[in-house]
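[audit] Reproducing an earlier prediction to check determinism. Same input, same settings, fresh worker. If the C-alpha cells differ from the archived copy the diff job will pick it up downstream; this log only records the rerun itself.
[audit] input (394 residues):
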Amino acid sequence: MKQQLSPFLLAVVLASLAALAPFAIDTYLPAFPSLEHALGGTPLELQQSLTFYLLPYAIMTLWHGAISDSIGRITTIKWGLGIFVFASVGCAFAPNVETLWFFRTLQGLSGGAGNVVARAMVRDLFEGPQAQRVMATVQMLFGIAPAVAPIIGGLLLGIHWQAIFIFLALYAAISLWAAIRYLPETMPKEKRLPLSAKQVIKDYRILFSDKEFNFVVLGLGANFAAFFLYVLASPVFLVKHLGLSEHQFGWMFVPTVCGMVLGSYLAKRAAGRYAQGKVIKIAYLWMAAMVLLNLFVCFALPVNALNNIVPVALFNIGMALAMPILSLAALDRHPKIRGTAASGQAFIQMVLSTVSAGLIVPLVWYAPAGLAIAMAGYLVFGWLMIRRTHVWQN
C-alpha cells in the first residue's frame, strides 16, 4: 500500500526524477582536468562526452513517453533508472575516454525516463492553476540541482573522480526507490495504448504537425538553451576566463539557480491570479533586459566573476517565470497522448542542448562576449516562436 503524500511531497519525488538529467550533466564538470589526465583525453574529447550523453538522451526522449503510455509510468521509471545505475558504475570504472563515451551514451539513453515521466505525471495528477503551481514547485526543486551538482562534484573530486559517478548511481537508486514507494501509477491498464513504431510515428506526426505545439516547445527550449550555454561552457568560462578553480563552480551555479528558484516561486504565486499572456510578456521583457545588460557587461566592463555571472543569474528569473506556463501549454495540446507530448517537449529541448554542446559552445567560448551573443540569439529565436502562439495572446 502506497503512502498518500501531499502535493508538495509528490512534487519533491517528481523533481528528484527530473533532476537526474542535470545531475548527470553538471556533477562531473569540475572533474574535466582530472579526467583528461586519468583517461588520457583532450579537452575537446572530454567536452564531447557531453554530446555523447545529450544526443542519445534527445533521441530516446522520443520513446520514453510513448513507452510510459503503453506499459505504465512506474514501470518505465524502473527500467530507465535501473539501466542508469548500471551505466553510472560503468563510467566510474572507465579505463579510457572511449569507454567513458560508451557508458555516457548508455546514461543518455536511460536518464531521460525520469524527466519525461515526471512531466507527464504532473499533468496526470493535477488540473488548472494547481497543475501550474505543482509544475513550478517541481521546476524550483529541479533548478537546485545545477547549483548543488558542481559543488558536490568538487567535493567528491577530493576523494577521486570515480566517486562522482558512484554518487550518480546512488542518487538514481534512491530516486527509483522513492518513485516505487510513493508515486501512484497514473496510467491505468484500461487507458494504455499499444506500443508500436507505426503508432509512435503516427503520434509524432500529430504532434509535430501542430504549429502551436511546435512554437511553444521551440520557444521553451530556446529560453533554457540561452542559460544552458553557460552550464556547458562552464569548465572554460569559469576556469579560463574568470580564473576560478574546479572547486569554485558554485560561484556561478548558486546565484544562477537562485534566480531560477525565484522565478519559479513567482510563477507559483502568479498561477490563477494573472493572465498567462501577461506573465509571459513580463518574463520576456525581463529576459531581454538581462541579455542587453550581459552584452553591455561583456563589451564595456572588465572580465570578473561578479560582472559576468550576475546578468546570467538575473536572466534565469524570467526564464523560470515563463517555463511552467509554456510546459503545461504544450502538454495540454494533446491530452490523450500526454506521455508522448512530454517526450516531444523534452526532445526539442535536448536537441537544442545537444547542438549547443557539440557546435555552438565550442564556437563561442573563446570569450564571455561570445557566450553573451549566443544567449541573445537564443532569446530572440525563442521570442519569435512564442509571439506566434495563443499563449502570448491570452
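[audit] rerun output stored. Observation attached for the diff report: The chain has one domain: 7-181+200-393.
[audit] end
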